[in-house]
Amino acid sequence: MPEVSYREAVRDALEQAMRKDDSVFIMGEDIAEMGGSMGVTQGMLDEFGAERVRNTPISEIAIVGAGIGAAMQGMRPIVEVMYEDFLTVSMEQIVNQAAKHRYMSGGQLKVPLTIRTQGGAGWSPGAQHAQQVEAWFVHVPGLKVVFASTPTDVRGLLWSAIYDENPVIFFEHRTLYGLKEEVPDELEPIPIGQGRVHREGSDVTVVATGRLVHEALSAAEEAESKGVSVEVWDPRTLQPLDVDGLVASVKKTNRCVVAHEAVTRMGFGAEIAAVVQEQAFDWLDAPIERVGAKFAPLPFAPVMEEYVVPHANDVLEAIKRTVARG
Amino acid sequence: MAKVERKSTLSEERVRTFLREMLLIRRFEEKVEERFRAGELPGFLHVAIGQEAVAVGVCQALDDGDVFASTHRAHGHTLARGTHPNAVMAELYGKLEGCSHGYGGSMHLYDVERGNLGANAVVGGGLPAITGAALAFKLRKEPRVAVAFFGDGATNIGTFHESLNLAQLWQVPAVFVLEDNHWAESTPEIQHSPIRDLSKRAEAFGMKVMKVDGQDVEEVHRVAQRALKHARDGKGPVFLHVETERLVGHYIGDPQVYRDKEELRRLQETRDPIKLFREKHGISDEELEEHDSEVQELVEASVEFAKAGTDPKPEDALKNIYA
Asked: Domain spanning A3-182 has what CATH number?
């Protein structure tokens, strides 16, 4: 198959699921004629019509809540929340309703809802259009959380999210939509809960998500030229976490760096660090290093934004620090 | 306009059903109060004494396949929809035999087989999913209706407005039942809403409004049937505004310091839906007694059933998190 972009890969998964299955439909703000604010759903209205490509009011509570209700009645809705910042508007529905109906009903209900959303810095939208909020959702029992970093992964994981019987928050990264790679002709579902080694190495494991996977891969190239062999491991699914894959990688390299674009403090990387020290403490040759955004809202001015969020160089510095110890 | 007294057209069988169902809720709730005060029931309980006619009138009008979402005050809706008192009481005792298998409790009663998609402890929390359930029915062209119960307090929260807006915009088969008991916990309507007629909020979305006296079970049933038919026929959602009374506190043990005791006594005398039903249908003491003793036996048996039920194992807490 020719190269496809991350954006086209998302669309391909949506279209294939909708062709296969009448119970799948999408809804969200500006997703019909406009094709979504990121152009992901462009052209889908023509093929599937307005009943299944549903433009909604600006109404995140009702969009997510309606997705929950339709899912409880046997549909497989895919809700697009335009920016992940806006998930906060629908937080009650996600956390108290979607995540808990199965539990509170003692197993009578299921909510096979997928909430697609995107974010990410690098284009100076300011404090309310580019946050990375995945850590807020991995803390909620009943939700699954996916964050894919490549076209192949995003396609295979979205398929699995749509067909998962649970609510899945599916994070996409804005700056990756144009990223291209060759993908298999046939869509291959990627199981939820399975990490991926993007690059094998023997001196240090960099656990990275989203955009930082690519930053970590550049840092790894740079480190390699200085004689440090870096493994880059992407959990892909943050909840549930592929603990076995994570621990196996760290036991091999004996060093660990965690890298995400979200704020470092209290972030997803803290959980990774906790899991590694619980399960691979004796294998660690150095403290775990963390890379992430500084503890600040995202600023507007490009020089400040650049300063707050992490880049390949921050990953490289962390690699150097951990290798320099012990 | 003079109020038109509507002649009853209820069959004798319906009269018996309505009476019995309302009595069942009343006696069940009284028993719940008693067992709570005796220290047997964990958690937090809200009883529906005074609002029995709403639950019975609406639930008796539902078809098989219809679904509903309830509120923190859910025992009445659940019993009226046919969930056995044993299953409801067992849930209140936290037993596996409960209608939510001990995972939910009073504020999270579910019975999916009977269309009960759950009582919700977040005020207004269940409304968006009702719009979504109705959307599923519309997309699949199924003649089913999704019903949301909520109180006047819920009409101030965003879920209410967003759900009604979307339901009306998409013309989904939903009925929004406002149980207007004029209190949001301890806060009277005058302090929580700038307008007195809350159905104007639905009118603002262009939604069909129907109003009914919620203390008259026959009228609630008649109007609910119309509302459900309207929705089922594909004519769009309906806002069913039911004027009712909470004849007790917000929760069991609520001293109601905020409420005029004289006024409450007056309402208990004049607006009790069971008393009103008896008067309207000339139900004799003997007939009432006959139903009452049957219902009380059922309720008593539900307590025995619940107490003899199975406690979940502590580690069952880790089940049912994911499907």
From this structure: 3.40.50.970
DSSP tally for chain A: helices H, then strands E: 12, 14
Give the structural domain span for B35: 12-306
Q: Which among A25, A52, A61 is the nearest to B162, CB-wise?
A: A61
- pLDDT of amino acid B5: 59
ipTM: 0.96
Residue B257 has pLDDT above 70, yes or no: yes
User: The pTM is what?
Assistant: 0.96
Say whether pLDDT at B112 is over 50: yes
Is residue B82 in a domain?
A: yes
Angle at A249 between CA A244 and CA A252, to 5 degrees: 125
Q: Where in chain A is the domain with CATH 3.40.50.920?
A: 196-324
Domain count across chain B: 1
What confidence tens digit (pLDDT) does each residue in B182-225 have? 999 999 999 999 999 999 999 999 999 999 999 999 999 999 99
Interface test with B, best of A75, A108, A143, A166 (most B CBs within 10 A): A108
Query: How close A86 comes to chain B (CA, Å)?
Result: 15
Using the beta-carbon criterion (under 8 Å), do B118 and A104 form an inter-chain contact?
A: yes
Catalytic residue of the set A8, A15, A29, A60: A60
H or E element at residue A182: strand A180-182
Can you give the CATH number for the domain in which B235 is found?
Answer: 3.40.50.970
Per-residue pLDDT tens over the stretch A56-109: 999 999 999 999 999 999 999 999 999 999 999 999 999 999 999 999 999 999
- Which string of DSSP letters, residue by residue, matches A211-277? HHHHHHHHHHHHHHHTT--EEEEE-SEEES--HHHHHHHHHHHS-EEEEEEEESTTSHHHHHHHHHH
Architecture of domain A196-324: 3-Layer(aba) Sandwich (3.40)
- CATH 3.40.50.970 positions along chain A are 3-182
